[in-house]
Amino acid sequence: MSEKQLSKRVKDLRNRRGISQELLAENSGLSLRTIQRIENGETDPRGDTLKRLANTLNVTPDELIEWKQAEDNSYLYYLNLSALAFLVFPVLGIIVPSILWINKKDKIKNVYRIGADILNFQITWNIIFFITIPLFLVLRTYWTFEAIENAGDISPALVTDSMKKVLLFYLISLLFLYGYNLVFIVVNAVRTLKGKSVKYFPRIQFVR
Question: 55: which residues sit within 8 A by CB, 6+ positions away?
C-alpha cells in the first residue's frame, strides 16, 4: 500500500470511529505531529508506530496495510433484510442490523453508509412507533369525555363505542407503520442486490 493509500485509510478509520487527531494521538501514545504527518502522507508508519495505530483503530497491522474493501451486494441485501426483525419486536429492527453492521462495516464496500441509513431509519421508526402508545391513551380519554359531554350522560354502550373508535384508530396506525417499514426494507433490499443506492425516509441522523 502506498503512503497516500495508507494515510487515507488511517484518516477514514479515525473519522468513522468519531475521534479527533488529538484523541488518536493520546490513545496511541504517538505525538499529534506524527498523526498529522501520517494522515498527510508525509511518512509511512512502521514497526511500533504501525502497531500502536492499528490497536487504537481496532484493526490488525496487516489489515491496516493491506486493507481493501470487497464488494458484496448479497451481504448488503441481507443487511437490509435483517431489519425485518422488527416484526418480532420493534427494537430488534435496530439490534439485529447493528450486529451485522458492526461486524463488516470496515470490510465490505458501502456497508458503513447503508448500515447507518438503516439504523437511523429504524431508530426514527421506533420513536414514532412508541409515541403512538401515549397518543392512543390521550385520544381514548378525549373521545370518551367528548362522547359523554355530547350525550349528557354516561352509559356502558357509550363508553364501549368510544373505545371501539379509538381502538380502530390505533390498529390502523399500527398497520400503516408496520406496512411502511416493511415496504422500505424489501424495496431497499432489492435495490442493493441490483447495485443501486438505498433510500430510507424519514431518518434522523443518530448514527453518522
Answer: 28
By residue range, what is the domain housing residue 161? Answer: 73-193
State pTM to two decimals: 0.65
| pLDDT tens, residue by residue, 22-60 | 999 999 999 999 999 998 988 888 888 988 998 998 887
What's the number of domains the chain is made of? 2
171 falls within a domain: yes
Sign of CA dihedral 126, 82, 200, 103: positive
Long-range contacts of range 24-30, CB-CB < 8 Å, 24 or more positions apart? Answer: 24/53, 24/56, 24/57, 27/56, 28/52, 28/53, 28/55, 28/56
pLDDT of res. 167: 77
CA 121 to chain centre: 7
In a domain, 202, yes or no: no
Look at residue 1 in the predicted model and tell me its pLDDT: 46
Give the whole-angstrom CA distance, residue 99 versus residue 17.
Answer: 16
In a domain, 206, yes or no: no
Mind listing the pLDDT tens digit for each residue in 81-111? 999 999 999 999 999 999 999 988 777 878 8
Task: Give Cα 193 distance to the centre of its chain.
Answer: 19
Q: What is the largest CA-CA distance in the chain?
A: 85
SS3 of 53-102: the string is HHHHCCCCHHHHHHCCCECCHHHHHHHHHHHHHHHCCCCHHHHHHHHHHH
| Res 155 pLDDT > 70 | no
